[in-house]
């Protein structure tokens, strides 16, 4: 029941920078993984390989899902919302489905921003914008959610609340989730398993199921 299999992956940029060296990793369906480690350790590269945004120099990344509707979405540190569009239009943008609007309103409820459908991104706080970005990432019902430091720019309290909201949603939707974070406490609080990236490889990992919902 592994959702993502990474086997002996190497990634070398421009024939000179080794970003990943012999990384092997299996991620189960529904598992919440945190990738931590120093800057330059290869976390973003691994995430981009899983997202299919880059190819490994050698080795394999396999996504084991037959559901082709919409496999995965990435949420970034910056919200990437279109400032000239309302919240509802930001969520609906790019879809021709008749039910899109209803689905967008459902997701606004899920991220507790039902009253903000007609607001514009500039009228929202940082935390609210990230909740909209999360709703946007969930619009296509992905099976895998990739989170690249999504809470890095938020203040401590907002960050905590967002952690809980993300956990709650990931559990409800049984998402397989990979979170890149510099914050070890955040990793321990959210993840089932923490993977430490060091010297371009996954040098160490720790299971932490007890931490789920702690605090
Ligand atoms: P992290 O996310 O842990 O900070 P990265 O995956 O961003 O690590 O980077 C790993 C290494 O690969 C670093 O040395 C970085 O400079 C290099 N690197 C990352 N992306 C590129 C790229 N597109 N082109 C060249 N080198 C890159
Ligand atoms: P993050 O803050 O998520 O770790 P990075 O700083 O690793 O992001 O990368 C930001 C962008 O810059 C990415 O698109 C990556 O491909 C590119 N990049 C990172 N390191 C290098 C590098 N050494 N040379 C060229 N591009 C790089």
Automatic annotation (TrEMBL):
GO MF assignments: ATP binding; ATP hydrolysis activity
Chain ranges of the ABC transporter domain: 4-215
Pfam family name, one: ABC_tran
Residue intervals passing through the bilayer: none
Entry keyword set: ATP-binding, Nucleotide-binding, Transport
InterPro entries (UniProt xref): AAA+_ATPase, ABC_SmlMolc_Importer, ABC_transporter-like_ATP-bd, ABC_transporter-like_CS, P-loop_NTPase
PROSITE patterns assigned to the protein according to its UniProt record, in alphabetical order: ABC_TRANSPORTER_1, ABC_TRANSPORTER_2
Protein's name according to its UniProt entry: Sulfonate ABC transporter ATP-binding protein
UniProt source species: Companilactobacillus nuruki
């Amino acid at each position: 029941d592994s959702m993502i299999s990474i086997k002996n992956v190497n990634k070398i940029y421009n024939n000179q920078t080794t970003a990943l060296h012999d990384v092997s990793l299996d991620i189960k369906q529904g598992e919440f993984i945190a990738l931590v480690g120093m800057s330059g350790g290869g976390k973003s590269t691994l995430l981009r390989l899983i997202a299919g945004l880059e190819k490994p120099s050698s080795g394999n990344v396999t996504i084991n899902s037959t559901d082709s509707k919409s496999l995965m979405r990435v949420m970034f540190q910056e919200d990437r919302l279109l400032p000239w569009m309302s919240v509802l239009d930001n969520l609906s943008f790019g879809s021709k489905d008749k039910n899109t609007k209803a689905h967008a309103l459902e997701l606004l409820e899920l991220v507790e921003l039902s009253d903000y459908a007609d607001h514009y991104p500039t009228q929202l706080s940082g935390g609210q914008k990230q909740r909209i970005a999360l709703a946007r990432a969930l619009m296509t019902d992905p099976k895998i959610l990739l989170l690249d430091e999504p809470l890095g720019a938020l203040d401590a309290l907002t960050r905590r609340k967002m952690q809980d909201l993300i956990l709650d949603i990931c559990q409800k939707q049984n998402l397989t989730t990979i979170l890149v974070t510099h914050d070890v406490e955040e990793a321990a609080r959210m993840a089932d398993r923490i993977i430490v990236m060091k010297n371009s490889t996954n040098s160490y990992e720790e299971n932490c199921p007890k931490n789920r919902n702690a605090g």
